[in-house]
Structure formats: structure tokens, C-alpha cells
Amino acid sequence: MSTYRIEIDRSLCSGFGSCVTEAPDVFAQDETGTATLLVAETDDDAVLDAAGSCPMGAIAVYGSETGAQAA
Amino acid sequence: MKHDPTFWLLARAGGLTAYVMLTMSVLAGLLVKSRPFKALKPAAVTDLHRILAMLGLGALAGHAAALVLDTTVKVSIPGLFIPGLVSYRPVWTSIGILAAEMMVLVYASFSMRKRIGPKNWRRLHWATYAIFGAATVHGIAAGTDTARPWAFSLYVFAVGSVATAAAWRFLVPPVPARARRKITPPRELTPRQGEQAA
Q: Do A55 and B118 touch (CB under 8 A)?
């Protein structure tokens, strides 16, 4: 089981792409610029930076085991 | 009857306040993208960016209302919205009207960003550079305080800070936090305070 579970609120995402800069293995942008997930779960700590970097606060990261929000 | 200066003062103060708010909102917007200060949370800067733009529009409404109520410069209500109807420095007042209308459009586009799509919303935001430029030209050329040192300094400072922030946004790519952590030397390698002088 991976450490983090990630959720994107696509209605908030405005295509800044900062999540892709922070965690390119986890996030990508579709043709409209909206962020998509490449994986639903990861051990990569960079997802915490990605969530913190989002100008729209559209990314939530949860601990896979605890379910508690990590970022 | 002596001319009551209240609305004339409010018109000038409203215009300058709107310009200061616009400048600060543009700066906050540029910081959202370029993230030069890592301690600032981008989501909080976005909120600040929107609040400053809203305050700017509020000051703009005050500027417009005071100009209609004042008699120093004759401005009708249609003259607030249609460029060319104000006889006082018509070119420069028209530029101000166009800047204000574009600012309303860009501000309103935030709520429409799902309908128009994030890409178009971001494209529309490019108009902000024209809005800032037009507002600056309008303030300098139509404003009656431009020759005063404090007002002139304000314009110089506003243009200088926006130009610097825009240059940073275009020339310095955002560095991912992980790469930054690698660049930062480990604590034991950093010289302790006072050690360097010895």
C-alpha cells in the first residue's frame, strides 16, 4: 500500500501546472490544461509540495492508511 | 457660491486608490505564477489577488460616481461607459474607461471560467497587461496630481514593481521544492555565525 492517496477537484483546477512542476510522476495536464492524476496512490513526498503549490487549493492528499488529510 | 471640493477630492482619491489596488492585485497575480517567495502559500496569494481586484473595482466605482457628482469636470452617466463623451482630455479619459471595462471583464471571467474553459480564462488574463498599461497612461495623462512628487513617485514605483515582477515571471522558471532541497547545503556545511570573519 502506498503512503499517499491524491484527489484533484477538477472544478477548481485552472491549469496553472504547478503540480506537474512539483510532482511530474504523479500529475499531468490534459488538452484543456486541467490537471489529471497519473496514479491514484504514491509514496512520492513531492505530492505534498504539489498540493501546497496549487494556487486554487484544488489538490488534497490523504494518508492511505489513516485516511487523514496530509496536505 | 463657493465650489464644494468634496466630490473632486473623492474622485481623485478614488482613482488613485483604484490604481494602487490594481497594481497590488497584478503583483499578487504575478507572484501566484512565479512563486519567488516560498513562504507564501499560493492559494492564499490567489485569494489576496482576487480581493485586491475587487477592492480596486470598488474604488473605481467611487471614482466614477464622484466624477458624475462633481462639477469641476463635466461627466454624464453615459460618459462613464462610452468612450469619447467626456470633453476633458477625451483621449486619456477614454483610455481610462476602456481599462475599467476590461478590468470588469477579467474580474467577472473568474466565475465564468468553467463555461469558457481554463485555457480561455487564462488567455483573457493577458489583457491585464493592457489594463495596467492603460490605467497608468490614464492616471498620468488625465490625472491632475501627476506633477506632484508623491503622485509621480507612485506611478514610477508601480510601473517599476510590475515590470520587475513580470520579468521574474517570464525569465525565472519555478523550481520544484524537491530540487530546492537538494540545492540547499546540509546544515553542517553552512558556516556558523561569526566564523566567516575569523
A: no
Which of A34, A45, A54 has its CB closest to that of B118? A34
Q: How far apart are CA B173 and CA B34, in angstroms?
A: 7
**Looking at CA atoms only, how far is residue A46 from chain B in angstroms?**
7
Give the nearest chain A residue to B38 (CA atoms): A53
Minimal C-alpha gap between B171 and chain A (Å): 16
pTM over 0.90: no
A59's enclosing H/E stretch is: strand A59-63
A44 contacts A4 by C-beta, under 8 angstroms: yes
pLDDT at B29: 95
**Interface probe with B: pick from A9, A21, A47, most Cβ of B within 10 Å:** A21
Between CA B36 and CA B50 the distance in angstroms is: 19
Q: How many angstroms separate the CA atoms of A31 and B28, rounded? A: 27
User: B52 near B25, Cβ under 8 Å?
Assistant: yes
Buried b (16+ CB within 10 A) or exposed e, A13-41: bbbbbbbbbbbeebbebeeebbbebeeeb
pLDDT tens-digit profile of B112-125?
A: 988 898 889 999 99
The answer to whether A17 faces chain B, any CB pair under 8 Å, is no
CB contact under 8 A, B118 and A32: yes
Q: What is the mean pLDDT of residues B76-92?
A: 94
